[in-house]
Amino acid sequence: MTRDERLQQIIAILRDGKMHRARDLAGRLGVSERTIWRDMAEISAYGVPVEGERGVGYILRRAMGLPPLVLTREELAALDHLLTLAETTTDPRIAAGAASLAAKIRAALPPPRPQDAAEGLAGDEANG
């Protein structure tokens, strides 16, 4: 299992809304407690709303994440436009959130083909 797969599994486990001790997560995932501590720090740094600490346990307090979505080229273009507008707002929290969201979306999309490179987020990736 790769580290990314493990991080995704931890988030999936935490979605039940219960407190989970590092020891239990480590046993379930076949890694050390120290690895879980590092993983929890990374998950938190990604902005996942995890609460807890070493020796106590970890819990996901509020909903996060969206179900998988299939977006059309036009929907991606609209989202790209709205995020670009939001990044220019005077509210620093909204601007930072828009920039972070745009980066997450770009990271999740397949690499653009050369003929699509000039089309921003939308490209032709949304249509496979």
Automatic annotation (TrEMBL):
InterPro entries: CBASS_pafABC_assoc_protein, DeoR_HTH, HTH_11, WH-like_DNA-bd_sf, WH_DNA-bd_sf. Keywords: Transcription, Transcription regulation. GO terms for molecular function: DNA-binding transcription factor activity. Residues 3-68 form the HTH deoR-type domain. It holds the Pfam family HTH_11. This is HTH deoR-type domain-containing protein. It comes from Thioclava indica.
